[in-house]
């Protein structure tokens, strides 16, 4: 009897605590907005918000997404626009990955572009299951009426916050690596003189590993579990003991300021600097070509530089607003500088910014096709080879099947001839340059 009474008291106390948390969140949501941290999710700092405002169970907080995200804007953006854009991004970036993986385009710059395409694709793809469930399939209705299912209670933090942010961090720093390497390549002879040195795969791997390690503190800082009470499931996040020792406020504020410096503002500043230097160099060379007859035709270096400068500008066009909005979130978290009535507009701006970030990813394929002759050539050859191989599997096309192997052999012969013929041509045309990193596509 004593055990039953004790368990009943604990159950009723937890139920009252859950109701009190919901009511307190509702009152605070109507008076003061919630500070937001994560790049694609609106519930990253809900724990800190509840911890600093509630006196009940200081190490626990309820996850209540409907009170954080404006549903009237999030539903069309996250439920319908982003899934379509992500699927288009998967198709375009997969094509980019296949083409850049070709041996004729296996260069250091293209390896960075290939890594960027993969990380950008995974940024949207990792959050797609959560958006489809919660918004497209109207999982928010189930969350409001009966609570979030236990599986989504556990996974939503990883799918909407941790994984997208890790992939996007890797994409940002890979873009910085691309801009730094391209500017050094076209403006100095240091990287042209020799292809030796540190392989580009090493910094690519280091960037990806560092982006994953940056998320480990946030992964182990909270533990999510489901609590069943009063015919409803409550999703509760509990702080780890080591966070309580450090201090929740110090830990979360320190984490977001670390992200400001090393994930958002720092890389963005470096991108602006190196992209500006690259554009300045391109304009200077274009001006010199107008007065020098021997430089009328742009070299491969400068053609690549123009194309990569456009890619960097597209990336900055979406990343700069993201950095500004993120810094305003962090400043509000630290100093409470944004009036409550204006914070709803900031939430809407953050949602639209997330859509733009994902929407600009497919534009890279358009830039490659418009500005890279070698990319178009390799794409056309791969497409024709795939089509020819597919005809071998189609019954009833004997004529095609008999001529397809001959066509494939001719394609391979043409590739070998073009490679052997391009070497002396490049040596004659670019005799003033040391050809080490000149395998970039034209």
UniProtKB/TrEMBL annotation:
GO terms for molecular function: G protein-coupled receptor activity. Coiled coil: none annotated. Its main location: membrane. This is G-protein coupled receptors family 1 profile domain-containing protein. Gene3D superfamilies: Rhodopsin 7-helix transmembrane proteins. Signal peptide: none annotated. PANTHER family: SEX PEPTIDE RECEPTOR. The chain crosses the membrane at residues 54-74, 80-100, 112-135, 162-180, 200-220, 256-283, 304-328, 348-370. It comes from the Eukaryota.
């Amino acid at each position: 009897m004593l055990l039953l009474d004790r368990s009943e008291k604990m159950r009723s106390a937890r139920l009252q605590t859950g109701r009190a948390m919901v009511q307190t969140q509702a009152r605070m949501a109507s008076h003061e907005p919630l500070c937001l941290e994560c790049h694609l999710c609106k519930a990253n700092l809900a724990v800190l918000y509840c911890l600093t405002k509630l006196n009940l169970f200081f190490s626990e907080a309820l996850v209540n997404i409907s009170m954080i995200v404006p549903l009237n804007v999030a539903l069309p953006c996250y439920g319908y626009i982003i899934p379509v854009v992500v699927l288009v991004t998967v198709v375009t970036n997969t094509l980019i990955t296949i083409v850049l993986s070709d041996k004729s385009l296996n260069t250091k710059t293209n390896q960075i572009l290939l890594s960027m395409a993969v990380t950008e694709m995974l940024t949207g793809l990792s959050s797609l299951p959560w958006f489809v469930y919660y918004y497209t399939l109207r999982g928010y209705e189930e969350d409001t009426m009966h609570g979030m299912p236990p599986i989504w209670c556990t996974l939503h933090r990883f799918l909407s916050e941790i994984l997208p942010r890790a992939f996007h961090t890797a994409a940002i720093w890979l873009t910085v690596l691309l801009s730094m390497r391209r500017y050094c390549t076209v403006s100095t002879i240091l990287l042209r003189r020799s292809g030796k040195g540190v392989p580009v795969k090493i910094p690519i791997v280091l960037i990806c590993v560092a982006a994953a390690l940056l998320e480990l503190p946030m992964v182990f800082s909270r533990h999510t579990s489901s609590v069943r009470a009063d015919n409803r499931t409550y999703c509760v996040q509990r702080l780890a003991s080591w966070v309580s020792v450090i201090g929740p406020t110090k830990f979360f504020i320190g984490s977001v300021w670390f992200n400001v410096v090393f994930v958002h503002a720092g890389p963005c500043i470096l991108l602006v600097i190196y992209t500006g230097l690259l554009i300045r160099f391109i304009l200077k060379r274009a001006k010199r070509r107008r007065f020098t007859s021997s430089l009328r035709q742009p070299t491969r270096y400068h053609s690549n530089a123009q194309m990569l400068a456009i890619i960097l500008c597209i990336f900055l066009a979406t990343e700069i607003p993201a950095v500004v909005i993120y810094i305003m979130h962090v400043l509000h978290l630290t100093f409470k500088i944004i009036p409550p009535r204006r914070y709803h507009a900031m939430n809407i701006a953050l949602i639209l910014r997330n859509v733009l970030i994902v929407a600009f990813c497919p534009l890279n394929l358009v830039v490659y096709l418009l500005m890279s002759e070698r990319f178009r050539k390799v794409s056309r050859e791969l497409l024709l080879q795939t089509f020819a191989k597919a005809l071998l599997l189609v019954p009833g096309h004997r004529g095609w099947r008999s001529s397809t192997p001959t066509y494939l052999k001719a394609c391979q012969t043409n590739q070998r001839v073009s490679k052997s013929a391009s070497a002396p041509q490049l040596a004659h045309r670019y005799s003033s340059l040391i050809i080490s990193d000149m395998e970039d596509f034209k």
